[in-house]
Backbone:
């Protein structure tokens, strides 16, 4: 399962979702705009940008096409 | 998909579908105090727009040399990204897009914000915790709208 934590007005979030859809990868989106507790939780995990993408075997922040391309092999 | 870019750190990047059905606008990605070329390149590579419309900018009288150089560098980064990715782009003057998109208005930043609010009401111009609308995002969307007009007219 792929989970994408997003905020509004975030180009990288939009593009990550677009890339996942284009590659036919199912994902769950969680919008954390205004959710300070969740934002702090992600920060405590070392993430400093959005979106945060969590897969079964990896997690990262930002729009990283090479990571998205690798999901097919990971999942 | 048509992309409009208002260059500059406080600028914006927007895209609209040729039909006008989908439209988004974002603040210019920055890394520190510079335009984040890596992110812009990654976004444009994924979006694969049919045309990128970039506002044509130039140095202004009485502007400092350091800020002029920095602004020009950011502009060059955007043009370089389009070149490197093989994306067709057009440079449009502010006068040209404002004449068309903001016709009958004061053609200032508020007019661009008002246009976006009317024409693209679902686009949120207040990113993050900001209260003031982001005029760079509004300008970028207006530039993309101008591109859509040119393409519909067969002039692009």
Residues:
């Amino acid at each position: 399962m792929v989970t994408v934590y997003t905020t509004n007005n975030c180009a990288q979030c939009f593009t990550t979702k677009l890339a996942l859809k284009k590659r036919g990868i199912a994902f769950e989106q969680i919008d954390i705009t205004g959710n300070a507790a969740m934002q702090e939780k992600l920060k405590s995990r070392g993430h400093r940008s959005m979106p945060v993408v969590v897969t079964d075997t990896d997690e990262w922040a930002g729009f990283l096409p090479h990571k998205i391309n690798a999901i097919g092999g990971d999942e | 998909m048509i992309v409009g870019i208002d260059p500059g750190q406080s600028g914006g990047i927007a895209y609209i579908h040729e039909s006008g059905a989908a439209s988004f606008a974002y603040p210019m990605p920055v890394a520190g105090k510079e335009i984040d070329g890596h992110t812009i390149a990654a976004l444009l590579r994924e979006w694969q727009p049919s045309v990128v419309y970039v506002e044509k900018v130039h140095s202004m009288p009485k502007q400092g040399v350091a800020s002029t150089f920095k602004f020009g560098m950011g502009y060059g980064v955007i043009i370089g990204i389009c070149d490197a990715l093989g994306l067709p782009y057009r440079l449009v003057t502010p006068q040209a897009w404002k004449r068309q998109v903001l016709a009958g208005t004061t053609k200032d930043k508020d007019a661009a914000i008002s246009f976006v609010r009317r024409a693209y009401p679902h686009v949120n111009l207040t990113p993050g915790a900001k209260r003031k609308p982001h005029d760079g995002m509004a300008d970028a969307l207006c530039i993309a709208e101008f591109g859509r007009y040119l393409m519909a007219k067969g002039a692009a």
